[in-house]
Structures are given as structure tokens and as C-alpha cells.
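Researcher: Sequence recovery benchmark, item below. Answer with residues only.
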């Protein structure tokens, strides 16, 4: 089921009128979510992710704009008639019911021509349980399950009505690190198996990047960029998107372009043809630094942090906006830790220039 948002806006009245009459939680969303894909809605806390999801589910009414599921305008439909399955951070299973009864619960409220026999409900619950691989736990109570298993029950409960759209709001936040990894892969597997259009809300960019077909990066209610995760990572349209994606984060410097050369501090560190003479903000991915004794870019060497296969060379620079600069190199690379400086050559595709005023991308021919 394709989803289309047209001029979708949600304003909440502001209790503190000094900060303006309204909080604009979702500001003029205009985009389409293709059928059968998994979309990550990504952004810092308070950027409007949950509000956007609640508008799509029908739990909130938009101030302006429309929502379409396929060709159907669902803007005024109540949540129960939209055919959405939802999973929240607090998945709140009924403690006194078994796994099977929890999963069957949404089917028991079906009325009229939709009403199902007990056998049919059990069959559907088993089918949903098999999808999330908890069919062997059907007789247990939630207290007898691990956190990950409980979350799978919540997903099965959302799938049992065969929704047109699956909405997941920070579904992994309550799980420990290892379980988060496992469960996110599980969600990806289930989504691919069911081909249900799925929207996944998270503030964790690694999570969104690893499982989404497409990510929507938001801040303060505004969509900043939409695209395939790798495309957005490789071609951020502004400084916010560049700094929000990637671990360790991108390194930011003040620089100047003069005669096609990018200068940081007193050094010409890279050729950037096509950019006029001007001040710039320069952002360099940690993997964009190549150790090179004769390289043009000199950084102050602080320390080395070994992380298995890779090592972080932690550096400083007087024109660094970032407090420390992190360059990622292979652990078997040779760096003389006694020295006070270390030199690098830059990989052009890992360097991004931005206008210091607007923070918009300034393209150059790499
Ligand atoms: P988080 O990751 O912290 O859950 P979020 O990105 O999901 O954040 P929302 O919960 O959608 O953000 O909130 C977006 C903005 O709208 C915030 O500034 C929030 O304070 C405001 N907001 C949300 N609900 C209401 C409400 N009922 N009344 C007033 N303001 C609200």
C-alpha cells in the first residue's frame, strides 16, 4: 500500500505563549512512501517523528493537509478503519493473558461480517506467531518471556489483522544492545516476508540506516532530506543531515576556498574545482582521511583508540568546529604516537562543503 502525504501539518497550541502561539510538530510534509518498502523516520528528540506517525495512524488529526493510502483519502477515517498495525516502545501486553490470547486480542473485537470463528482466530494467531518465530511459546504469559520475545508478541499482535500499513514507534528502545541488533534484523525479515509498507520511527541513525529502504531525516517538524540511506550519507543536502548521520560523526572545520583550493588553517588541503572564492564550512567523514607522511593536511595528534579492525586517530585542529577530529584508519597502519602531529591526504568524495550562513551544500567536482 502506497502512502502519500500532502501538505500535512500538525500544530499544537503552545502553553508558553512567549514561545509563539503554536508548536509546529509536523510542518508541510509532502512525500510518497512506495508500496511494500520499509521507511525510517529519523531525527533528534522532539523533531515530530511520533506526531507524524500518529497522524498516519489516525490517533491525531492534522491541522492541514491530507493522507492517502493508495488512492483512498484516509484523512478523516478513524484509526480502526485505516487498516494499520502499530507497535510502540512500551508494547504493553496484557499480563493475565497467554501469548496466544494477546495475539488474538485485536481479532476478538471484530463485529458483523468481519467477525471470526474461534478456530479462524487461532489459525491467524498461529500464522502471525510463526512469522515472528514465537509459535512455540503460545501458552506462556508475558512475564515468562524475555524482552525480545515480548516485543515479538507485540509485533505479531500488530500483524494479526493483516494490516495495510505497519507503524513502529521506537520499538527497540527497551531492549539491550545485542537484542536491539537481533530484533531490528528480525523486523527487516518480517517486513520483507509480508511486504507490508512499514514506517519505523527512531532517533538512532544506525538503526534507521541499517534496515530502511528509504530514510526521512527530520528536524523541528521539517523534512530535511529523503532518500536511500547510502545516498543521504554520501550526499547530505545540508550540515544538519551531514552531522546527524554517521558514527563516529563527521568532522567539521572552518575553511576558505581560494582559486579552486580548499584551505583549512594555513594549508591547501584539497582541490575543489567549481567553488568560487569564499568562506566555507567543511565537513570530512572519519573514513575520508588517508595517512600520508607527505599529505597536505596536518592535524595535532592526541591519541589512538583501537576498535578491533579499525583505529580512531584522535586529533585536534585550531580551525576545527568539532572539539576533536576522528580519522578512522586500519589498525595495522603505522602511526608514530610520539609525534605531536599527523598528516593526511583527503578522499574528495568524503569531503562536503557548506555555506556558513545557510548551511546548504556547496557542490564541487570531486
Ligand atoms: P521523541 O523522539 O522525543 O519521542 P519526537 O520526534 O517523536 O520526539 P514528537 O513527540 O512528535 O517528537 O513532538 C514534536 C513536538 O511537538 C515537540 O516539540 C513536542 O513538545 C510537541 N508536542 C507533541 N505533542 C504535543 C501536545 N499534545 N501538545 C503540545 N505540544 C506537543
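Model:
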Amino acid at each position: 500500500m502506497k502512502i502519500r502525504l500532502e501538505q500535512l501539518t500538525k500544530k499544537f497550541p503552545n502553553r508558553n505563549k512567549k514561545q509563539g502561539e503554536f508548536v509546529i510538530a509536523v510542518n508541510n510534509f509532502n512525500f510518497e512512501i512506495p508500496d511494500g518498502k520499509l521507511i525510517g523516520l529519523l531525527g533528534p528528540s522532539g523533531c515530530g517523528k511520533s506526531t507524524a506517525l500518529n497522524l498516519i495512524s489516525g490517533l491525531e488529526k492534522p491541522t492541514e493537509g491530507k493522507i492517502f493510502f493508495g488512492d483512498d483519502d484516509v484523512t478523516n477515517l478513524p484509526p480502526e478503519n485505516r487498516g494499520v498495525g502499530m507497535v510502540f516502545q512500551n508494547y504493553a501486553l496484557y499480563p493475565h493473558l497467554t501469548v496466544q490470547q494477546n495475539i488474538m486480542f485485536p481479532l476478538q473485537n471484530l463485529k458483523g461480517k468481519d467477525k471470526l470463528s474461534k478456530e479462524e482466530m487461532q489459525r491467524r494467531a498461529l500464522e502471525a506467531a510463526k512469522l515472528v518465530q514465537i509459535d512455540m511459546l503460545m501458552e506462556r504469559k508475558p512475564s515468562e518471556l524475555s524482552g525480545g520475545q515480548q516485543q515479538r508478541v507485540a509485533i505479531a499482535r500488530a500483524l494479526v489483522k493483516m494490516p495495510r500499513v505497519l507503524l513502529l514507534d521506537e520499538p527497540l528502545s527497551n531492549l539491550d544492545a545485542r537484542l536491539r541488533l537481533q530484533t531490528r534484523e528480525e523486523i527487516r525479515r518480517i517486513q520483507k516476508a509480508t511486504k507490508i509498507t512499514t514506517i519505523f520511527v527512531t532517533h538512532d541513525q544506525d538503526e534507521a540506516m541499517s534496515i530502511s529502504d528509504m530514510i526521512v531525516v527530520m528536524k523541528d517538524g521539517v523534512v530535511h532530506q529523503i532518500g536511500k540511506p547510502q545516498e543521504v550519507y554520501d550526499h547530505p543536502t545540508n550540515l544538519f543531515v551531514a552531522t546527524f548521520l554517521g558514527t563516529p560523526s563527521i568532522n567539521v572545520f572552518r575553511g576558505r576556498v581560494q582559486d579552486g583550493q580548499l584551505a583549512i588553517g594555513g594549508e591547501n588541503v584539497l582541490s575543489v574545482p567549481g567553488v568560487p572564492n569564499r568562506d566555507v564550512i567543511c565537513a570530512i567523514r572519519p573514513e575520508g582521511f588517508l595517512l600520508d607522511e607527505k599529505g597536505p593536511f596536518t592535524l595535532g595528534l592526541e591519541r589512538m583508540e583501537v576498535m578491533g579492525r579499525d583505529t580512531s586517530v584522535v586529533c585536534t585542529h585550531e580551525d576545527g568546529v568539532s572539539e576533536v577530529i576522528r580519522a578512522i584508519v586500519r589498525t595495522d597502519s603505522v602511526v608514530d604516537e610520539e609525534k605531536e602531529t599527523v598528516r593526511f591526504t583527503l578522499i574528495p568524495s568524503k569531503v562536503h562543503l557548506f555555506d556558513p550562513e545557510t548551511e546548504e551544500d556547496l557542490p564541487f567536482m570531486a
